[in-house]
Amino acid sequence: MADNLDNIADKLESEAAAAEATIAPTPQLDEASERNLKLILDIPLRVTVELGRTKMAVSDLLNLGQGSVVELSKLAGEPMEVLVNDKLIARGEAVVVNEKFGVRLTDIISTKERVEQLK
Fold first, then answer.
1. What's the total number of domains in the chain?
2. CA 98 to chain centre
3. Element housing 31 (H / E)
4. Is 90 inside any structural domain?
């Protein structure tokens, strides 16, 4: 088990290094833009990773107990959705990092699609 976690950790580190190498340099901001950006950097946002959804009747909900299985709308292996303040911004896959679950982003929603969600 420990070897498996070490292998996963090594893989994540190498993928993170590769991702950093491919990220385009951040454009330089003028002083006014940088001040404006600093105003919003501390605003808290609710980030949700959605594994799936389902609908059920109240009677079915009340019959749930320990060991019950709730079937979700998504298939196993299908990408999870990453929502910020209930707006879809990305899709990803589940990973384990230091014995905690995480999500590796596989697809970022384009700016155009995000703007369309606001309408």
1. 1
2. 17
3. helix 31-40
4. yes
Following DSSP, what letter does each residue of 38-101 receive, concatenated? HHHTT----EEEE-------HHHHHT--TT-----SSPTTPPEEEEETTEEEEEEEEEEETTEE
Residues spanned by the domain of 105: 44-119
pLDDT tens figures, 83-112: 998 899 999 999 998 999 899 999 999 888
- The backbone region for 85, taken as left when phi is positive above 0, alpha when psi lies in -120 to 50, beta otherwise, is left
Dist. CA 87–CA 42, nearest whole Å: 19
Quick check: is 71 in a domain?
Answer: yes
Residue 19 lies inside a defined structural domain of this protein: no
Q: Are 114 and 87 in contact (CB under 8 A)?
A: yes
Is 99 part of a structural domain of the chain?
A: yes
pLDDT one-digit tens code per residue, 40-85: 888 999 999 988 899 999 999 999 999 999 999 888 888 999 999 8
Assessment of whether the complete model's pTM goes beyond 0.70? no
